[in-house]
Write a structure and sequence with these properties.
The complex is a heterodimer of chains A (145) and B (387). Chain A is α/β, with parallel strands linked by helices and 145 residues long. Chain A has helices at 3-8, 22-31, 53-61, 82-99, 117-134, and strands spanning 13-18, 40-45, 66-71, 107-111. Chain A is built from five helices and four strands; from the N terminus they run αβαβαβαβα. In chain A, β3, α4 and β4 (107-111) form a beta-alpha-beta unit. Residues 1-6 of chain A have low confidence and may be disordered. Chain B is 43% helix and 11% strand. In chain B, α9 (212-240) crosses α15 (332-346). The radius of gyration of chain B is 22 Å and the shape is globular. The chains are: A alpha/beta (145), B alpha/beta (387). Chains A and B meet through α3, α4 and β4 of A and α10, α12, α13, α15 and α16 of B. Bound molecules: iron/sulfur cluster (SF4) and FE2/S2 (inorganic) cluster (FES). Iron/sulfur cluster binds at residues 253-259, 325-328, 330, 332 of chain B.
Chain lengths: 145, 387
């Protein structure tokens, strides 16, 4: 890909954030006036385990350049064990997308607690950077999908 | 599975395994060990088979426990009978290994209940592709008959999925009929579960045969099959990999969802991919079309298949019904088996292998399995995870 295009590329990232931790961390990061990449559109979910495969695949096939799933740290899920199930589901999604050669690196799971405003900003900024380097999702130039 | 007891009864019939199994059904009902039998019976037009639940001796007489074709996955028949819990009558069900394995997966999904079912499996030579059978039942019957008589798995005129099947023999059933490599006309009747052993006792079949030779025959066939499977599926993987490969693989797909409706694992009453929510707003489609320059319909073909792969590849038993049902000849089963052979080992799971083991997505480990950990470790942050 030509450099000029890359420079103009404005990644679109969808973040599925758990209400009890990462969503609060986003809030904290915002009210602390941290610099956060505007590429991420936030979808608030009640738990990382709410993010089912169809949600992710629909987002992916409709052209998101990156997808971030973020929940409470293992052991801290508001509902006890949701994030452990989410972790398995994520592993499956990664495996399937990787085995289909679908740039599975555009999909990322992470844990951010409510007090980690800093970490939230870091994760979002570095994921945006990573996606910017990868360039637009190839799905976006396919009319046959 | 009961590994301590590996001695078996022996049955003989001039009609080979088909005769022995047929005799077995009759005896089991006769002696009152079961109330009825679920097995394939040839339809009156003689161009297909149907699952029949029967207790009338005259109907049982017409049963074909080892049928050349599989028009309906047996697990689906079991589901119709037991989806609301255990039934009143005790049923002996004769099924192919992949049908029993699908039944085990459905049991884990609460769609099948085994309480009053005695499962009988047999060394499966493979099944004739349904289209071939319908076109020429005579030829198919003949070639299948030869296959069975040879006491070996079939090589030709069987479904592609059968040609690379490694679970063609004993599974987590109650009773297994082993006859590959056993002298002609003879079959071992092997108790697999306690229930199976009790039934053999109840009908007075003495277990005095030793089956070590049969076991080594099975494992040598399995080794060859495993090799063939790995080769075939990795070639399939290479073909479909990448956006181009994937789109090409499903270019002929007409979106009929036949592959899904015949799949024993896809039990949902309303599939997301058939639902209203999955259909995007026309405005949204126009928007995407404008961005991408054009738009092909039906939309979301690849997403449908990728979605099914995430939903059912962990439970896929490679029965091949999807390929059999595809009107445009897409090797659906090969593609899904490729995925199943990747996702199942990731979770150290084999679909339909063990009816006491939960589905991989219904459980977790705080310290995840090595292959799962390999994938999720980047999510865990620097401090590492867990407790
Ligand atoms: S059966 Fe074939 S044509 Fe129909 S949805 Fe499945 S792959 Fe597509
Ligand atoms: S509540 Fe946050 S991951 Fe479950």
């Amino acid at each position: 890909m030509d450099k000029k295009v890359k420079k103009e590329f404005d990644p679109k990232i969808v973040g599925f954030l758990c209400n009890w931790c990462t969503y609060a961390a986003a809030d904290l990061a915002g009210s602390s006036k941290m610099e956060i990449s505007p590429a991420l559109s936030v979808v608030r979910v009640m738990c990382s385990s709410r993010v089912d495969h169809n949600l992710v695949l629909t987002t992916f096939f409709n052209g998101a350049d990156g997808i971030l799933i973020a929940g409470c740290h293992p052991g801290d899920c508001h509902y006890g064990e949701g994030n452990y199930y989410a972790r398995r589901r994520y592993a499956l999604l990664k495996k399937v997308t990787e085995s289909l050669g679908l740039e599975s690196e555009r999909l990322q799971l992470t844990w951010i607690s409510a007090s980690e405003g800093n970490r939230y900003a870091e994760v979002v900024n570095s994921f945006t950077e990573k996606i910017a380097k990868l360039g637009p999702s190839p799905i976006n130039c396919r009319s046959d999908l | 599975m009961n590994d301590t007891e590996r001695s078996a009864a022996r049955m003989r019939s001039p009609e080979g395994i088909r005769g022995s199994l047929h005799d077995f059904l009759k005896i089991a009902v006769d002696k009152g060990a079961v109330d009825s039998v679920l097995a394939p019976v040839k339809v009156p037009a003689e161009n297909s088979y149907a699952w029949i639940l029967m207790n009338d001796p005259a109907v049982i007489e017409s049963a074909s426990p080892v049928a050349p074709v599989m028009p309906v996955q047996g697990a689906k028949a079991l589901k119709s009978l037991t989806r609301k819990g255990k039934g009143e009558s005790r049923i002996l069900a004769v099924m192919r290994p992949c049908e029993i394995r699908a039944g085990i997966e459905l049991m884990k999904l609460n769609q099948v209940h085994f309480d009053n079912i005695v499962l009988v499996s047999y060394d499966c030579p493979g099944a004739v592709p349904f289209q071939d059978y319908v076109k020429d039942p005579g030829f198919s019957e003949e070639s299948f008959g030869k296959m069975i008589a040879s006491g070996r798995p079939g090589e030709e005129n069987i479904k592609p999925a059968c040609g690379i099947c490694t679970e063609f023999s004993i599974v987590d059933s109650d009773i297994h009929f082993g006859y590959f490599g056993v002298d002609e006309g003879s079959a071992f009747v092997i108790p697999v579960s306690e229930q199976g052993a009790e039934l053999l006792d109840a009908i007075g079949l003495d277990r005095d045969a030793k089956i070590a030779d049969w076991e080594s025959e099975i494992s040598s066939i399995r080794d060859k099959r495993t090799k063939k499977r790995t080769e075939t599926l990795s070639a399939a993987g290479e073909r479909i990999k990448g956006l181009d490969g994937l789109i090409n693989a499903f270019r002929k797909c007409i979106g009929c969802h036949n592959c899904m409706s015949v799949c024993p694992i896809c039990y949902c009453r309303q599939c997301y991919f058939d639902s209203e929510v999955s259909k995007k707003d026309p405005d949204f489609i126009f928007e995407i079309a404008e961005k991408r320059g054009a738009m092909a319909f039906p939309r979301d073909k690849v997403m449908f298949h990728a979605g099914r792969m995430t939903h059912m590849s962990l439970s896929c038993v490679s029965c091949g019904f999807c390929t059999d049902a595809c009107p445009t000849g897409i090797p659906v089963a090969e593609i899904f088996s490729y995925m199943a052979d990747i996702t199942q080992p990731t979770f150290e799971y084999i679909a339909g292998k063990n009816n006491g083991e939960p589905l991989p997505l219904r459980k977790f480990e705080k310290k995840e399995l090595p292959l799962v950990h390999e994938i999720v470790k980047s999510a865990e942050g620097e401090e590492g995870s867990d407790e």
